[in-house]
Amino acid sequence: MQTFRREIASILTTLSGSPWATHPGVQKVLTEYGHLAEAARTPHATRRISLQIFHASRAIDSLLAQIAGNEAAKPGTANHTKPFWTLGSSLHYIEHHSIGGRKFIPATKTDLDLLTIDRNTYLHGADVFPTDVQMRLFLTRTVKALQEAITFPM
Amino acid sequence: MKGLDLRSYQQNPFLPDLLHQPDFLLVPELGRLIVVYVLSSHSIATWRETLAAVEDLFEVKQQCGEATVVYGIWMEDARPSGRENEQRFELLAGLFDQIDVLSASEPVRGLHAQIRDRLQLRARTELLDLWRQERERTTANLQRFREKWFKQFVTEEPPKRIGQSQLLRGIEQSFERTGIVFERNFRVRTAKEHLAGLPERNSFRFPIAARAALGHELAPIETLSFDRADARTKLRYLMTKGRLLHYVYVGDRVLYQGGRRRPILHIDGNLAGPEHDPYRYVRSLVSVGWHLTNSIEAIEEVILADL
After folding, report:
1. How far apart are CA A37 and CA A20, in angstroms?
2. Lowest mean pLDDT among B5-9, B83-87, B93-97
3. Average confidence score pLDDT of chain B
4. Subunit contact B32:A17, Cβ cutoff 8 A
5. pLDDT at residue B135, rounded to an integer
6. Which of A152, B80, B175, B224 registers the highest number of CB atoms within 10 A of its CB?
7. What pLDDT, on a 0 to 100 scale, did the predictor assign at position B270?
8. What is the least distance, in Å, from the CA of B140 to any CA of chain A?
């Protein structure tokens, strides 16, 4: 079983260096990615994978919520004040209103849709765990979505 | 990175959409990323390898944002000597945000000291337009990308491979039959020459170019015999070639010249990417504007679509 420490460390470092890192709401996302990095130390494989899926999902969820919320709060943009954003509602907002004119490319949008399905499968299904290849795919999709999201204008 | 005041750093990172990974990621403070590539005469021994290194720069700017600093450290005792070597170095120096020469005799202590002195580096502003135009162009190309159209390039079946000269003969014979106008050894001038202060002979060369009829734009045709050996260097080179083809230098600015050039890349072999992302390479090549083909009929279709 792989721990994916290198991939996770790259996510954390890239996000820390992006302009979004200075946004107040993104501090918690950075902390969440810190938890994801720490989860790699968990020796028991199934617990480690469960934690990694949990933290990776929460982190991308919260990052997209911050990006969508930041855009929605700008004067003159489609204002959708929400008590909270879900992954689905953030994606819907980005897809329909764009972030400073930018949207996810179709391949990343597909990745994010699949990420949502995977997350639901592994977080809600009893005794269901991904294989190493599936976990790599899950993290790769997370990183690709994150990398595209952090290039959106603030 | 002992002794360096960094918010975060990583040696040998892994970013899945980069064809060639950098040596370090450095975050001097929140919101500022410096990506470090260690370079040497081995990494730019040919023009192909040099353009592959340029692709690394393009990819970082696209994936991590234009404000990301791309810093090259030339790990040799001096700048390269000899005209061609100097020109290759100049091309990189003209595009990277900074390249410093570092003595290879004290690599670790020297590297740390060098990085410490460069933590305040900022991205060069004169190339921001190029990175932005390229992002808009590649994003527009990717908006139209659908995996189902490219299944034949990632097939698991063993690929049929033929030599380039045999392939070109076949293409020429077919063009003659269908009345497609073509030119051998086609050269294209691009922004590359100006970016590096290179002489005109450094224009991009294509084995053949064709057009549907006189008066139409010639479509340059490149061929790629793809196998696993050295695959990434070939891909990185073709990515840069595909990008720079679309830019010209006007006055002191690099300008996108619109979608009038329709470069064709004929693939001989299996272009499947890693197991978790088989369309990785296909997507990249399409994003920079290549029309991928794997048969002579498909080349003709692309050319005749211009009518």
Report:
1. 19
2. B5-9
3. 87
4. yes
5. 92
6. A152
7. 84
8. 8
Separation CA B160–CA B147 (nearest Å):
22
C-beta of residue B265 within 8 angstroms of C-beta of residue B293: yes
Amino acid at B161: R
User: Cα–Cα distance between A52 and A60 in angstroms, integer?
Assistant: 12
Look at chain A and report how many structural domains it folds into: 1
Rg of chain B over all Cα atoms, to the nearest angstrom: 20
Q: Please give the Cα distance from A9 to B172 (Å, whole number).
A: 51
Using CA coordinates, name the residue in chain B closest to A20.
B31
Give the one of A16, A105, A137 whose C-beta lies nearest to B7's C-beta: A16
Q: Which residues of A touch B34 (CB under 8 A)?
A: 17
User: Is some CB atom of chain B closer than 8 A to the CB atom of A143?
Assistant: yes
- Give percent above pLDDT 90 in chain B: 49
Q: Domain range for residue A55?
A: 5-149
Residue ranges of domains in chain B, CATH in brackets: 8-123 (3.40.50), 133-304 (3.40.1350.10)
Let me know if residue A124 belongs to a domain: yes
- Any domain includes A154: no
Tell me: the pLDDT tens digits for A70-92?
999 888 776 666 767 888 899 99
CB–CB contact A14 B30 (8 Å): no
Give pLDDT, residue B228: 66
Q: Coil, strand or helix: which one is B123?
A: coil
Measured in angstroms, the CA of B31 and the nearest CA of chain A are apart by: 4
Q: Give dist(CA B145, CA B48) in Å, integer.
A: 27
Nearest to B142 among A107, A137, A143 (CB): A107
Quote the pLDDT of residue A78: 65
Instruction: Classify residue A86: in a domain, yes or no.
Output: yes
Give CA–CA dist A97/B145, Å, rounded: 21
Q: Which of A13, A140, A150 sits opposite B25 (nearest CB)?
A: A13
Identify the pLDDT of residue B2: 64
Q: What is the ipTM of this complex?
A: 0.85
Residues A80, A86: contact at Cβ < 8 Å? no
* Local confidence band at A131 (pLDDT 50, 70, 90 cut-offs): confident
Q: Report the pLDDT averaged over residues B229-247.
A: 90
